[in-house]
Amino acid sequence: MSTETQLPIPYRSKLTDPFEPGQTLMVKGKTIPESKRFNINFHSGSPDLEGGDIPFHISIRYDEGKFVFNTFNKGEWMKEERKSNPYKKGSDIDIRIRAHDNRFVIYADQKEIHEYEHRVPLSTITHFSVDGDIILNQVTWGGKYYPVPYESGITGDGLTTGKSLVIHGIPEKKGKCFTINILNETGDVVLSFNSKIGDKHIVRNAKINNEWGNEEKEGKSPLQKGVGFDLEIKNEAYSFQIFINGHRFATFAHRTNPEGIKGLQISGDVEITGIQLFILFSIMPPKFDPTEIKIVYLRCVGGEVGATSALAPKVGPLGLSPKKIGDDIAKATQDWKGLKVTCKLTIQNRVAKIDVVPSAASLIIKELKEPPRDRKKVKNIKHSGNLTFDTILKIARTMRPRSMARQLEGTVKEILGTAQSVGCTVDGQHPHDICDAINNGEIKVPEE
């Protein structure tokens, strides 16, 4: 059962099946600045507070700064157990309660805060409720004990484009690494997600026709030992979009057909608490067309590999690897080292052809033949060199298709204006003086 809208308070729900060991109740929402307290209750027989026993009661109290745990049995409250409240008024709330044979384990923001021994049998729970000072956005109940190593098919027609696979887990406190593999019908690993717990990176890769491809490990890993995570893998037409704890983590471009994905493997030092499959689109996205051509323009610094976090949202959905595109752009712009240029990406069948589209300023600075500078170390660079008028004319002809001027003479004046902004001289004179000479007829600009 899952709900992701603002839910009514008090919230009441009847369990459709018995609450079993391994299952988790997840409550998400937000408190208001005036919040004093709210409660999460497991009920026996009736969801009303006066209607029966409460096998497990959590009171989140801002007025006392405490989490209070208790049981109401046979008309009496039993002995309280208390822990400090990690939440502040107005903060987002993520509380999870996982049942085991003899106890509940309670998590706040995926971190374990308390264990509560069962005082009445788990099997007596029939309802749960949330009430008090909270804006309730999501309630999820489900999961089970998953053996690791774990291998299973993906239900229905699998992880088709337009679906999202969500895996809830907890890296073991003394663990070293774990791996999640997504497989297609032929046994290819279309996505391998390998986390070395405590390492800075998560390695993504694919094994197609029994051969591993190039690893991708950009992005700092947010995973921690003993702290839970929500991993969401969205299958889109050109790539997998990977989210960790609700935040975009990486884009992994498809290296084979994105359809026919029907297998899941999990191994290593991780406890899995839940696996869910969601449909993302009411209307399925269009099938991949290998003949389609797309044009993308990117602003970059010549000779430098762009940040994959900036490239991923732009090229990932088109089936391109941000790391490879960053490397290719750095190679294609090597002649423009240190200069800001625009790159035109012509994309067809997941392959990008890169062309540099220089600005007038970058053409002028390149013609000055200055030594490359590290833009991160050298600031406010002054370009005080000199260019010939013939060079200005050559640049004007290059920029002519993008000029707003009716004639070449007007384009030359535009380039002279840019030269003035850059700070260089033309034939030893100020660019404005050259413009005056053109206006006076002292310098003739040839016809196109």
UniProtKB/TrEMBL annotation:
Keyword Cytoplasm found: no
Lineage top rank: taxon: Eukaryota
GO biological process, one term: translation
Pfam family, one: Ribosomal_L11_N
Record's GO cellular component terms: ribonucleoprotein complex; ribosome
SUPFAM superfamilies to which the protein is assigned, alphabetical: Concanavalin A-like lectins/glucanases, Ribosomal L11/L12e N-terminal domain, Ribosomal protein L11, C-terminal domain
Gene Ontology molecular function: carbohydrate binding; galactoside binding; structural constituent of ribosome
Sorted UniProt keywords: Lectin, Ribonucleoprotein, Ribosomal protein
Domain Galectin as annotated: residue spans: 11-142, 151-278
PANTHER family: GALECTIN, GALECTIN DOMAIN-CONTAINING PROTEIN
Protein family per UniProt: Belongs to the universal ribosomal protein uL11 family.
Entry protein name: Galectin
